[in-house]
Design goal:
5 strands, five-stranded antiparallel β-sheet, binds zinc ion, binds guanosine-5'-monophosphate, alpha+beta, HIT family, subunit A
Length: 114
């Protein structure tokens, strides 16, 4: 989608620090990190949010999760732990409407979230 920020990152029309990419997903550093490690893992395909997914997307969603685990391991977070977040819709605090998983680590996380 031409007007979608993350589609433009996938197309490399907007620069980002890409840490992983394959045929299905791209992972890059968040421009406004909320933790020492803060990556965004997104599908190449434009899906606005988790709300628009269904059973046909199960393999893609599973792949997004396993890529998060792989990056966390590469960043040395596997033992200290990390958090995955997918903000969805207004109450979820979503601001960019291209599905993404936040991978946060490098410090203890609090609960409940804000
Ligand atoms: P959301 O609020 O939708 O869950 O998360 C959107 C995330 O995208 C935010 O953490 C924000 O910092 C990040 N972000 C917004 N614009 C850009 C950008 O141009 N480049 C990168 N790398 N991250 C961005
Ligand atoms: Zn998009």
């Amino acid at each position: 989608m031409g007007d979608c920020l993350f589609c433009r990152i996938v197309e490399r029309k907007i620069p980002s620090k890409i840490v992983h990419e394959d045929e299905l997903v791209v992972a890059f550093e968040d421009v406004n990190p909320q933790a020492p490690t803060h990556m965004l893992v997104i599908p190449r395909k434009h899906i606005p949010s988790l709300k628009e997914t269904d059973a046909a997307d199960a393999a893609l969603l599973g792949h997004l999760m396993t890529v998060c685990a792989k990056i966390a391991k590469q960043k040395g977070l596997a033992d200290s732990g990390y958090r995955l977040v997918t903000n969805t819709g207004p109450n979820g605090g979503q601001t960019v409407f291209h599905l993404h998983i936040h991978l946060l680590g490098g410090r203890p996380m609090e609960w409940p979230p804000g």
